[in-house]
C-alpha cells in the first residue's frame, strides 16, 4: 500500500535527521536543508509539548513511535 511506503520513507528521513544531528553538517548543506524542511514542521510541536530532558531531545523517538502506530492502523 502506498501510504505504508510513505510512512516508512518518512521514518527513514527522521532517522537521517537524527544521524545528521550527530554529524553536524553545516546549515547551508543542501541535504541538511532538505531533511530539516521535511522534519522540523512535525518535530517542532513535539519539542514544545515534550521539552528536552537532561539535554536529550526525545521528539524524533516520539515521532517514530507515532509513525509506527499510524502504520499499524493500515495493515
Percent helix: over 70%
Mean pLDDT, nearest integer? Answer: 94
Count of extended strands: 0
Derived from helix and strand composition plus strand pairing, the structural class reads mainly alpha
Write the element-wise H/E pattern from the N-terminal end onward: HHH
Explained architecture:
It is built from three helices and no strands. The protein has helices at 2-23, 30-49, 59-73. The protein is 76% helix and 0% strand. It is globular, with a radius of gyration of 13 Å. The mean pLDDT is 94. α1 (2-23) crosses α2 and α2 (30-49) packs across α3 (59-73). It has 75 residues and is an all-alpha fold. The protein has one domain.
Which descriptors would you attach to this protein?
single chain, 75 residues, mainly alpha, 76% helix, globular
What is the gist of this entry?
With about 80 residues, this protein is mainly α. The protein has 3 helices and no strands.
Amino acid at each position: 500500500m502506498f501510504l505504508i511506503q510513505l510512512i516508512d520513507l518518512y521514518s527513514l528521513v527522521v532517522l537521517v535527521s537524527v544521524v545528521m544531528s550527530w554529524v553536524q553538517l553545516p546549515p547551508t548543506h543542501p541535504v541538511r536543508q532538505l531533511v530539516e524542511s521535511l522534519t522540523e514542521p512535525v518535530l517542532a510541536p513535539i519539542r514544545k509539548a515534550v521539552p528536552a530532558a537532561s539535554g536529550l531531545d526525545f521528539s524524533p523517538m516520539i515521532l517514530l513511535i507515532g509513525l509506527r502506530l499510524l502504520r499499524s492502523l493500515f495493515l
